[in-house]
Amino acid sequence: MDAIKEAGYHVLDLAHNHILDSQIEGVISTADIIEKAGITPIGVYTHEPRVQAPLVIKEVNGIKVALLAYSYGFNGIEQYISKEDYNRYLSDLNEDKMKAEIERAEKEADITIIMLQMGVEYRLEPTEEQKALYHKMIDLGADIIFGGHLYVVEPSETVEKDGDKKLIVY
Questions:
Q1: Could you give the CA distance from residue 136 to residue 146 in angstroms, rounded to a whole number?
Q2: Among 7, 40, 87, 146, which is least packed, fewest CB within 10 Å?
């Protein structure tokens, strides 16, 4: 963690398909280690349930930046945890929850950045599902969307919304 902090990281995204590899205990201990290093984890909720947790908002040069993170799934390991734990700790692609969080971010921050873990590994083009969801997030108020999970570089695009340019990196 020292090297990560010394490299300048202030936030780490934990919303990914391997976060449950060590069950809920691993989620909690991973987030705890990150927090003890003075770094903020996003994409998991260990202090309050997801629906009650405050948004992660960092101020950068006087600009409030909301950071949200979501994962397409958890490699099937989610079937071994309770529905209560799933809803409490994890940040999935539940559209109602994402919509509420993005709308909150738009009210509380100047810029909303979303990290997404989804898509088909090693595919060089985004799926129609990715395109539709990323554009929906822009419509809801996201300013920048960074995709991940693919192990390859997919394209990026700039989208105009209400006179502002928004960035999507698939």
A1: 14
A2: 7
